[in-house]
Amino acid sequence: MASVGRFTARLLRNPAVLRAGRQWQQTARCSVVAGSAQHTLSVRKRIEDMKKAALLGGGQKRIDKQHEKGKLTARERIELLLDQGSFVEYDMYLEHDCTDFGMEKEKYPGDSVVTGRGTINGRVCFVFSQDFTVFGGSLSGAHAKKICKIMDQAMLVGAPVIGLNDSGGARIQEGVESLAGYADIFQRNVNASGVVPQISLIMGPCAGGAVYSPALTDFVFMVKDTSYLFITGPDVVKLVIK
């Protein structure tokens, strides 16, 4: 064993061995750095792609349809409402987690609502703007969580909540999860009543839960010839009144 140790010691002191060891370390270090840089660039590109997708909502074709109807997109409305450059978006990349009816194949960063905070004439407010270009602005579990988050923040700091509503109501594909999302929002409407101002702007045809929440707020504004509020669809109404 002693002879093996002496041989190993002499080998490690050999200049050629030392050079080879240093070269290997440098190669390994460069490989790690290169791999890390490549990973960073890959992640950055993915984030940039997701951001572009989030800004496009449901896609250019659906945006064009909004404009053809004389309606603005969710982001355009926020841009007009808030002081320039004041908007700070929350949960821009949050997606729904529904896997029924092939929904896992249809996902959009941010889902069907844009949420965040900003200022109006210098005063802080929290705002959500439903995106009709994504599943008709319908409410998913993720959609509800985003709205609840800004409502909680608004109550925490004592700031107004402004909702730009343009939604077909619950997302049927998510079933009771969507309805539970509305229940969470209604609870916050009640909790915020008399605590912070709640303002609803009806920017298009709204039905079901998209009607109940605005009815619980302090002020409701509508756009002539564009906004409609339906308790539910005509088929359900006919069934109930028979």
From TrEMBL:
PANTHER family for the chain:
PROPIONYL-COA CARBOXYLASE BETA CHAIN, PROPIONYL-COA CARBOXYLASE BETA CHAIN, MITOCHONDRIAL
User: The CoA carboxyltransferase N-terminal domain covers which part of the protein?
Assistant: 40-242
Molecular function via GO: acetyl-CoA carboxylase activity; propionyl-CoA carboxylase activity
Q: What domain of life does the UniProt record list for this protein's source?
A: Eukaryota
Its subunit composition reads: The holoenzyme is a dodecamer composed of 6 PCCA/alpha subunits and 6 PCCB/beta subunits.
Cellular component terms per the entry's GO annotation: acetyl-CoA carboxylase complex; mitochondrion
The name of this protein is Propionyl-CoA carboxylase beta chain, mitochondrial
Entry EC number(s): 6.4.1.3
User: Pathway involvement?
Assistant: Metabolic intermediate metabolism; propanoyl-CoA degradation; succinyl-CoA from propanoyl-CoA: step 1/3
- Quote any Pfam family the record assigns: Carboxyl_trans
Q: Which reaction does it catalyse?
A: butanoyl-CoA + hydrogencarbonate + ATP = (2S)-ethylmalonyl-CoA + ADP + phosphate + H(+); propanoyl-CoA + hydrogencarbonate + ATP = (S)-methylmalonyl-CoA + ADP + phosphate + H(+)
Write down the species.
Magallana gigas (Pacific oyster)
The Gene Ontology biological process terms listed for this entry are: fatty acid biosynthetic process
